[in-house]
Design brief:
Length: 200
């Protein structure tokens, strides 16, 4: 009787529609994630990873991607079999994937990763080279404020070589990780509602 109820809930107009909406949201999230991963690799992220203090952790990055893909596979299995266990396994994989994604965003800012030429160029906002110089700057509040302001300005400043169109395109690209994160949370919420509906 309970199995019949779960199957009816999953195939009902609300339950089945919610499960399919979750799948669509999940696929959109995965597409944005794949786009960002491709952009990171194309911009030299793998080569620069060990030479930069903010280098991406490959276990975190690929753990995030693998958990999300595993969850998606379990969700497809849920759609095929109507098994609530598959739905909850999918959500169980998605939750830590979101956590690892948040960890990735804290390192991967700004997006996309800078190209090797840009990373190699010295800038006025570069921190002092020696520990003594850094200690001197941090001890002086005015110098510290100026250093922080210069670093923020260098991150937000458009690349003059790319012109105004390039700056606008760069700002638009910065929305991709935000959309990826919002879609991931939305997918988790939709999936939870569908999974609860499947066992109701």
């Amino acid at each position: 009787m309970a199995t019949a109820t779960a199957t009816a809930a999953a195939h009902g107009p609300g339950g089945r529609g919610m499960a399919i909406a979750t799948l669509v949201s999940w696929l959109l999230t995965e597409s944005l994630g794949a786009y960002m991963l491709r952009a990171w690799i194309a911009s030299g992220g793998l080569r620069l990873r060990d030479r930069r203090p903010d280098g991406m952790s490959l276990p975190v990055l690929f753990g995030h991607a693998c958990l999300a893909a595993t969850g998606l596979t379990c969700w497809v299995l849920f759609l095929i079999t109507d098994s609530p266990i598959a739905a909850w396994l999918a959500l169980g994989a998605l939750a830590p994937a979101i956590g690892l994604g948040i960890s990735t965003v804290t390192v991967w800012t700004p997006y996309p990763a800078r190209r090797p030429a840009a990373a190699a160029e010295p800038s006025a906002a570069s921190p002092p080279a020696s520990d003594e110089s850094l200690a001197r700057v941090l001890a002086d509040r005015e110098l510290t404020d100026r250093l922080v302001d210069d670093m923020v300005a260098s991150v937000l400043a458009p690349d003059p070589a790319r012109g105004r169109a390039g700056a606008t395109q760069q700002r638009a690209k910065a929305l991709i990780p935000a959309a990826h994160g919002v879609l991931a949370v939305g997918t988790f919420l939709l999936g939870t509602l569908a999974a609860v509906g499947a066992i109701a």
